[in-house]
Each structure stands twice: as structure tokens, then as C-alpha cells.
Amino acid sequence: MSLPCTQCTSNKEVLERTIDALNVAYSMFFFFSKAMREYSEAFIENQLLLATTEALESALEDQGLSEVGQSSVTTLTGASGPDQGPAIEEDSPVAKPQSEYHPFVAAEDRWYAVLVGRVPGVYRGSHHIGPNVNGISGFVVNRYKSEQEAQSAYDAGLDAGHVVEVIMVETRRVITRSTP
To answer: Which Gene3D superfamilies does the UniProt record give (predicted)?
Structure first.
């Protein structure tokens, strides 16, 4: 893109070329901002998918399942009769009663024990954690699957003297030209 006034003969021509150059720049900006927005949305979706997959893998590991997609069904060529579904062995994790499973815990149902922060305590969901510890060097937050686990950890921290309330004081001063 060249400067609009190198070959101009009047102010009107300078203005028209400047407007044309700005329109081109705006079009390029709009095109690239749209591309970046689409890329960032796709990136966020991929990160959410990755986090969900990791959470599911963690839940499966807690239940004793190591890999998804393995099946105990074997198909024999020439087998007759209806499909009976997967075979379940008595000692397999699938045969365990429902009460023995660790349920998948959604992010908002997780419990957190804040041991070093602005307001130490036990919190449900991660939305309370950021404002409680942002800007604090050495904050301590631990995640738990149940309120009882989080409360036990917090109580143990209290007993051991590891719970610290961080009080941050903000001081503001107006600076003028005469301020030393």
C-alpha cells in the first residue's frame, strides 16, 4: 500500500485515496479478525473437549477401567442366533454393584479446600477460587470429589497450622508534577 498523496493533484483526490486506503485496511482487519475469532472459538471448543475427555478418563481410571473401547464381545464367523451383547465376567468392574463406583464429578460439583488465600475455607465449584487466590504468591488450593474430603483436608490444615488468611492492602496516591 502506497501513500495516497504521492501522485495527487488536489485535496479531494488525496481524501479519496485516503478513504480507499482506509477501506482496504478495514477490509483486511475485518477478514483477519473474523479468521482469528473463528480460530479462537475452535481452539476453545478443542480445549473443552480435551478437558472433558481427560475428566472421563480420570473417572474411568477411578472405576478400574484403563481404556475406553475395549470389548469382551467376540464374534465368530458363521455364528448363528441373535447377538447376546457383551459377556460380563464376575470379577470385571462392569459386574460391580453401582454403589462401588466413583461417579463422574462435574466441575461445578467439585469441592475445594483453600488453605492459603483471601478467605480460606471449603468451596463448592471452581468459580469461587479465582477471586480468592488471584494475585497471591504461594496460594494453596486442593480439589476434592466430596464436601467431606474437602472439609477433612481443611480441618487437618487448621490443626497443623497451615491455613493462612492473606490480607492485601491497596494504597493509592495521586501523583502530580509537584509530587517528589
So the answer is: Ribonuclease H1, N-terminal domain
In which band, very low, low, confident or very high, does the pLDDT at 101 lie, cut at 50, 70 and 90? very low
168: in domain:
yes
Alpha-carbon gap, residue 114 to 131, rounded angstroms = 12
Question: Where in the sequence is the domain holding 145, given as residue range(s)?
Answer: 106-174
Q: Is residue 110 domain-shared with residue 170, that is, in the same domain?
A: yes
**Could you report the per-residue pLDDT of 4-52, keeping only the tens digit for each?**
556 667 788 778 888 877 877 777 776 777 777 777 777 777 777 777 7
Side chain identity at 91, as an amino acid letter? D
CATH of the domain at 117: 3.40.970.10
Structural domain includes residue 69: no
For the record, the C-alpha cell of 15 comes out as 481524501
Its pTM stands at 0.39
Rounded distance between C-alpha atoms, residue 95 and residue 35, angstroms: 50
- Run of H or E including 164: strand 164-165
**Closest of 143, 167, 168 to residue 154, by C-alpha:** 143
Which helix (H) or strand (E) segment is 87 a member of? none
Q: What phi and psi, each to the nearest 5 degrees, are found at residue 19? A: -65, -45
